[in-house]
Amino acid sequence: MQLILKKRRVSDGNLKFTPIFLELHQEIIDSIAELINNNYEINLGKRIAKINDDEEYFINKFSDIRILRGLNLILMKFYYEHSHYSHDTGYSPEKLRIQMYKYFEQNKISFILPKDKENFFLNYSEETNIVVQNLKKDLFADHSLFKILTRKKQNEQVKDPPLPKMIIYLYNNEIIRTLLNRSYWIDFDFKLENVNGTLFKNLIFLSKRLGLHFESNNLNNGAVNIRILGPQELVGKSTKYGKNLNILFLKNIDFFVSNNLIINLLINFFGQKREIFIDLSILKDLLNTYTRDISDIDQVFDSKVEKKFNDIFKILNKNWEITREPIIIENGIIMIPDFKLKYFNTIVFMEIVGFWTERYLTHKFRKIKLLENKYKDMILFVDENLKFPETKLKTFYYGKNMHVTNFIQFLKEKYETPYIKENIEKLKTDKTSIISSINKLSNKLKSFSFLKLVEEISTFKNIETINALITENYFDDKQNIRFLIAINARIIINLDIIIELQNNLIKLSEQKDNWEGEELLKIIVDLNLGMDNGHIRIALKILGCTWKIKNLVQEFILLPERFNDLKEISRCLYF
User: Fold this and answer.
1) Mean pLDDT score of the chain, rounded to an integer?
2) Strand ranges (DSSP E) for 320-409?
3) Which has the closest alpha carbon to 182: 230, 252, 216, 214?
C-alpha cells in the first residue's frame, strides 16, 4: 500500500508526519461506489485490457492517484481476481505450446512467415483435431492481456457488489498495517487510571512472546510513556520486527482504540526515517469494526481463587469499591495487581500469590520488594502451601478458606474507622444536608424514586459518603426510611440493571398479567443481566412488584409498605 504523508505540528511544537486516511464523506463513498460499479461489476467476465483502458476516468475522482491505486489494491485483494479463460481445447496453454514445439521439431520447421501462419494453424488443427478458433484462443490464454475479471471464490455467491464503507475501513486498516510493517518502534502515553489493566496485561504478555522490547517511563503529569520496539532496533538495525509490531497492534486493537491513544511510530519511508503521528480518537470510527466489546472484559479471571475472592468480597463488603487488575508503573517496573480497593481517597492494592512456577514466584517477589517501600498499602494473599519469602507488606494466608471476613475487618480497623473519626464533623454536616433535601423533596412527592433522588439530591451521587453515614448509624430517622432503602438497594444492585429489568418487565406485562414465579425467574435469568436468583428477587421487591406485574409503573417507586426497616433489605440477600 502506498503511503501519503503530510506534515503536522503536534502539541509539543514539533513537526511530525501523519498519514492520509479515507474519511466517511458522502462524496468519497459515492466515488468508491462508482468505481466498484463502473470499473469492476460491469466488467465481470471481461478481459483486463478493457478495464485498464477505462481506469483513467477515475483518476480525477480522488485527490491523489495513490488513493485510487490503493482502492484498486483493496478491491483485488478482498473481492476480485484475475482468472484465465476457460480452456475449450481441453489443454492448458503451457501444454499446448509444448505439443506445438514438438510438432515443429518433428516436421523440422524453424520458423513461420506471417503469410503462412493461417495455413500452419489449419494443418496443425487437422492433425490434432483441435478447432482452429479454440487453438488460437487457448495457446496464450495465460498471458496477462487475456485474463478476465471474476469475483473471488468466497464471494461468488454474493450477488451485491462490496459496500463502499467497508472498502474505506479496509483501506484504512491496510494503511495501519503498512505503517507498522515499516516501523522501528511504537510509542504512546496514557494515564494509569484511564486504562483497563486486563487489556494492558495482554499487551505486555504478547509483546514478550513476540520478542519485542518494552520500555516505560513515568512522566511529570502523572502519565506514563510506553515504547515497544524490537531488540535490534536498540542499535539502529533495520525494521526486522515491524511485522511483530503489526501483530501486536492488531491483536490488541481493543486496548489502543478503546483508550483513544495517540500513537507515534518511527518508520522507514523510502530509506529515510519519518516519525508518524496517529490520533486513534479520530481514527477509531474509520477502522474496520472488528474490535471486541470490552464491557465484559473484567469478568474473565486468571484463576478460580481470584473469582472466589471477588464474589465473596462483593457480597460481604459494601464500603469499598473493587476493580480488577490496576496498573502500577514505577521507574521501569510494571506490576498489575489482582485488585484495587478504593474507600474515599484511600487506595489499597491487593495481590493474590497462588500456586505457580518457581520462576514466576521469584519474579513476583522481586517486583514486590522493589515496590514495597512506596506502595505500603499493598496487601498480599498468599497460598499457605507456598514457601513465599516474607515482605514488609501486610500478608494474609489462605487455604480452602479465603478468610475474607478477617480481611474486611482489617480494612475497617485500618482505614474506615480512622477516616470517620477524622471526618466526623463533615459527615454530620452531610447528614443534615441530606435530611434537609429529603424533607424538601417529601413536600413535593408522595414517594421517592432513584432517578428523582439522583436528580434533586446532589449528595446522593456520592455513594461513599452515604455509605459511611449508614455504616456508623448516623441515620435513625424513621421518616427517612425510604431514602435509606433506596441507598441500600443502590449499593446492592446497580441502578442501570434495575432499570433494564424494569423495561423488560413492562414488555412481559403486555403478554399476560400473572406469571408463575419460576417461569418468570427463568425468563429474567435468560436476559443475562448478571444477577443470580437471589438478586433478581431483591430487584423485584425494589421495583415494588410481585409475580403480578401488570401494574408496574414506568418509573419504579420504592413503596414503604414493602420495607418496614433496613432488616428487610438484609433478609432479601439470603432468601
Assistant:
1) 75
2) 321-324, 328-330, 333-335, 339-343, 346-353, 379-383, 394-398
3) 230
pTM metric for this prediction: 0.59
Q: For 131-199, give the DSSP string.
A: -HHHHHHHHTTTSGGG-EEEE-GGGTT--SPPPHHHHHHHHHHHHHHHHHHTEEEEEEEEEGGGS-HHH
Sheet hosting strand 321-324, strand order edge to edge: 321-324, 339-343, 346-353, 379-383, 394-398
Dihedral sign for Cα 249, 252, 254, 259, please.
negative
Q: What does the alpha-carbon distance between residue 358 and residue 364 come to, in Å, rounded to a whole number? A: 10
Mean pLDDT of 283-302: 56
* CA-wise closest residue to 169 among 255, 74, 252, 256: 74
Amino acid at site 510: E
Please, which residues bridge with residue 268 across strands? Answer: 273
What is the residue type of 169? Y
Nearest CA to 403 among 378, 380, 377?
380
- Measured N-to-C along each axis, helices 424-444 and 463-471 cross at an angle, to the nearest 10 degrees, of 100
Taken in order 482, 479, 463, 418, is the CA torsion positive or negative? Answer: negative
Q: Which cell is 476 given?
A: 435513625
pLDDT tens-place string over residues 363-375: 888 889 989 888 8
